[in-house]
Amino acid sequence: VVVTTNYIKEYYARKYDIPIRKIVAVPNLLPRWWYGDRYQPNIKTQQFQDNKSKPRIGIVSSLSHYNIDHVKDETGQIAKDDFDEIADVVKKTVDDFQWVILGYAPPQLKEEIEKKKVQCYGCVPIVQYPSTLYNLGLQAIVAPLQDNEFNRCKSNIKYIEACAIGVPLFASNCIPYKGTLPENQLFSSQDDLKDKLMKLKFSSTGAYRKMIEQQ
Fold first, then answer.
1. Could you tell me where the DSSP H helices lie in the chain?
2. What are phi and psi of 141, to 5 degrees?
3. Is the whole model's pTM more than 0.90, yes or no?
4. Which of 34, 99, 108, 141 is within CB 3.0–4.6 Å of 118 for a Cys-Cys bond?
């Protein structure tokens, strides 16, 4: 059995009673032909300067991040999905940031998208994904995750993608990003995320470039 992280390796061994020696963890990596030559910190730093009054913040999500069927949890309440982690922040900061959605449109932002307060680009063929992501001219990407077993089994692929295109990632303070991202790019609450994004907005171009290079 080949998996992408040590966490899911241990989970499979425990869940399905598979000898752990029969499970191999091979980390996700990005092929150069797909992502190569998109790390351009000079261009990204200039874009940050150009959009300083209203930085472009990306949310890149597939359908699996949203509870569109209103599935209920064990208490009978509608289960929260990953976007619930940041929905209020987006709604309250549409005048501070240009929020940009690539992928499935969050149901929580239906009104904001219809009123053009949030940009939504929908899904693209997978081979076009890196170039589309890069060409959005983002100053940051936000990756919200609920802290549950399904998400803990994931790899830090969004971090690797953000590194490859030279854009700082801000992610939930949980596996798979905990221990990978710098502490100042992990958020534990909506207020925490808002504070970190506002700090980014008022950063110097030198500090912004340093974030790119540290990633």
1. 6-16, 32-35, 41-50, 87-92, 110-114, 129-135, 149-152, 157-165, 190-201, 205-214
2. -125, 140
3. yes
4. 99
Measured CA to CA, the distance from residue 77 to residue 213 in angstroms comes to 43
pLDDT at residue 95, as a whole number: 97
The whole-number pLDDT of residue 71 equals 72
Q: How far apart are CA 128 and CA 124, in angstroms?
A: 6
Specify the long-range contacts of residues 207-214, CB closer than 8 Å, at least 24 apart: 208/45, 208/48, 208/139, 208/168, 209/41, 209/44, 209/45, 211/168, 211/182, 211/185, 212/41, 212/44, 212/45, 212/166, 212/167, 212/168, 213/41, 214/182
Average of per-residue pLDDT values in the chain = 92
Q: Which two tokens stand for residue 83?
A: 């976007």
Cis peptide bond prior to 176, omega within 30° of 0: yes
Query: Which amino acid, one-letter code, is at 141?
Result: I
Rounded CA Rg of the chain: 18
How confident is the model over 154-195, as pLDDT tens digits?
999 999 999 999 999 999 999 999 988 999 999 999 999 999
